[in-house]
Amino acid sequence: MSNRRLYLCLGLSESIADITRAAIDGGVDVVQLREKTSEAQPIIASAVAIKEITDKNRVPFFINDRVDIARVVGSDGVHLGQGDISPMDARAMLSQNVIIGRSTHAQSELDAAQNEPVDYISAGPIEATPTKPGRAPTGLSYLNYAVGHSKYPVFVTGGITPAKIEELIPIGVSHFVVVRYIVDAKDAFRAARELRIAIDRNFD
Questions:
Q1: CATH number of the domain that 90 lies in?
Q2: Cβ pair 165, 196 in contact under 8 A
Q3: What residues have CB less than 8 Å from 43, skipping those under 6 apart?
Q4: What is the DSSP string of 117-131?
Q5: Does any domain span residue 1?
Q6: Is 70 exceeded by the pLDDT of residue 49?
Q7: What is the pTM for the complete model shown?
């Protein structure tokens, strides 16, 4: 995951396959399906469609929370929140080759994750975001701590735009999770390309 820098997280929608395809063409190199309210079957159907696209483009595909669905569709990984099944239990249920991500929002969670069988962590949201209602923003102080203390790649979440990428790179951030900037865009390809350009101009 250290070489993957632009991570798209999206929920169910009628245009989910089109958005995924356009975003990957624009430069997204990780995709996660995050759906908190739907029953299993619609998630599975969309996951199968996304996985066909990501497999073709050699882009890792993750399921949020649902280890059972990750097993059914054979996703490349699963992303776990603090209230989900533990990474250790998820690892026991899944192939050892499956990638596991872990959400963190505070120093204590970041510290605990360093001893868990995960492959990357997310830090944030650094700004309030409607994709995580009720979640207080962590601000930059926690992000600085995460970047300085994590042995795993740190993917920052919350309000990521090309301008925000330019602000965060100088403090050591090199991995970004985006939702609204691509999902809500009129042109998902163009939005992803703008983000990718902001990243690539700072990294070889």
A1: 3.20.20.70
A2: no
A3: 12, 33, 35, 63, 66, 69
A4: S-SEEEE--SS--TT
A5: no
A6: yes
A7: 0.93
